[in-house]
Amino acid sequence: MTDANDDGPLVVKVGGSAGIDLDAVCDDLAELWHAGTRVVLVHGGSAETNRVAEALGTPPRFVTSPSGFTSRHTDRATLEVFEMVYCGSVNKGLVERLQRRGVNALGMSGLDGRLWEGQRKASLRVVEDGRVRVLRDSWTGTVERVDAGLLEALLARGRMPVLTPPGCSVDGEAINVDGDRAAAATAAALGADTLLLLSNVPGLLAEFPDEGSLVRHVAAPELDAAMELAQGRMRIKLLGAREALAGGVRRVVLGDARGAGCVRRALAAQARASRVPA
Amino acid sequence: MTDANDDGPLVVKVGGSAGIDLDAVCDDLAELWHAGTRVVLVHGGSAETNRVAEALGTPPRFVTSPSGFTSRHTDRATLEVFEMVYCGSVNKGLVERLQRRGVNALGMSGLDGRLWEGQRKASLRVVEDGRVRVLRDSWTGTVERVDAGLLEALLARGRMPVLTPPGCSVDGEAINVDGDRAAAATAAALGADTLLLLSNVPGLLAEFPDEGSLVRHVAAPELDAAMELAQGRMRIKLLGAREALAGGVRRVVLGDARGAGCVRRALAAQARASRVPA
């Protein structure tokens, strides 16, 4: 069940923040798909999770690791709201948008079939008020293995995989994994040519939030320095970019998902070069 | 990618009503799976959907068709809550329970990959206060085609499919489909030997809710008469049973999902006969 197509697929990650135009993203992905590009879509759902969590009485809590990365604190109650929104609302909303456009999309989480497997980190070191604390009841982890064979089998059957956290711990627990880094691991496992990370900013901004300070390209050796520029979520995207490049992905594109033609524009803006356009 | 095993798989539908013990169901399914039985699990999530819908300010509305079947009125807002609970909470909760028990479960909805395809009924005739009315904005339909090849491919890869509404309209819309009837269509498409419909009652009760009035067997020709006895959801289960038998499934078992050993007990209670034990 391997695919006859030698080119790796295109892996696209689209975030779940305000302003992101999922209809525009799906318009472009359908066009690429119908033209013969094999696409794997990975998505987030953070803003919607916050909204539903508030409504259900379990407001979100964000924590910062000692190395400066910010993430959602996923206790068990949060994990369950997270699954409702990511696997329910957002995943099925994207699959329906794609099906409406004639793309036979198939949504699943990284828990399903152990697609994204890794170790659970049940306790988490965080910095609060300048002090390091340990949080228990954490349902998080990092993707260490991707079942590329399952994705290839779905692509070979004409299905576009639409993937979302959570992943699956070695012991079979649902774990919140970072979507950008999971997309990077998926791109590496599939031998993707391009990983496209779409968000609600134009890309890496040297002086966030000034969109005029967009950094157009970053060569792979300069990624560590670029990570120093990045704020918040963008730092994790660059971490994902570095992991994808280390895993053999040829280029990583950071694109803007706001407005029509966003995928096409992001892919066209960059020459095919072995670097990280940002 | 067809399976070498000549026996059809076991298709189990478990409802989402109060009292159903999903841990007990998963214990038994894991035991069957590890012993070599190929299992496809279909589930509901009605009680939890009501709870979340209330909390999110879109309380459920149930309607009765002119032929006497009761169902949820699924307008667009309801569909979206429905997807959160069925595809998010309940589906991932079951997949995680199975993964914890060493079963490589893979959850998907009938929308995914057009697994369960049928025509949408955008308007619905219902009886209210003795009068027939037409409701618009209905996102419902009936499963007409099941992609058995996709399920066989997943089984051949060692994955247990865990399936849930919604289904997919011919036009690619998400549609609420009845879980019992979708399970029946799935069992027929897979050439299943047995369809097991688990709920929170012992089976068909001649005098509902008196559990002493349990009807132990119904031969296929007597199903129409038995349907006259049935109340509420049980009528739809019997409709599903009739459809499964008409589709070639050898027996349909109505079982009680309350308590340990429920699947084993339901399957053991019935001799292998071409009838509907109830």
Protein model, in words:
- Two copies of one chain form a homodimer.
- In chain A, helix 2 packs across helix 3 and helix 5 packs parallel to helix 7.
- In chain A, the strands form six sheets. Chain A has a six-stranded parallel sheet, sandwiched between helices. Chain A has a four-stranded mixed sheet with strand order 11-6-13-14, with helices on one face. A two-stranded antiparallel ribbon of chain A has the order 3-4.
- The longest helix of chain A is centred in the first third of the chain and has 25 residues.
- The N terminus and C terminus of chain A are likely disordered.
- By secondary structure, chain A is of the alpha/beta class.
- At the A-B interface, helix 3, strand 5 and helix 4 of A face helix 3, strand 5 and helix 4 of B.
Largest protein interface? A-B, 45 and 45 residues
The assembly state of the depicted protein chains is homodimer
Give the overall pLDDT of chain A as a whole number.
91
> What is the overall number of helices of chain A?
8
The strands making up the biggest β-sheet of chain A line up spatially as 5-12-2-1-15-17
The beta-strand count of chain A equals: 18
Work out the helicity level of chain A. Answer: 25-40%
For the termini of chain A, the CA-CA separation is 35 Å
Low-confidence stretches of chain A: 1-5, 271-278
Q: Describe the biggest sheet of chain A?
A: 6 strands, parallel
Brief summary:
Two copies of one chain form a homodimer. Chain A is α/β, with parallel strands linked by helices and 278 residues long. Chain A has helices at 22-34, 46-55, 76-100, 148-156, 179-190, 223-229, 233-246, 262-268; strands spanning 10-14, 39-43, 62-64, 70-72, 105-109, 116-118, 120-121, 124-128, 131-135, 140-141, 145-146, 160-164, 167-169, 174-175, 194-199, 217-218, 251-256, 276-277.
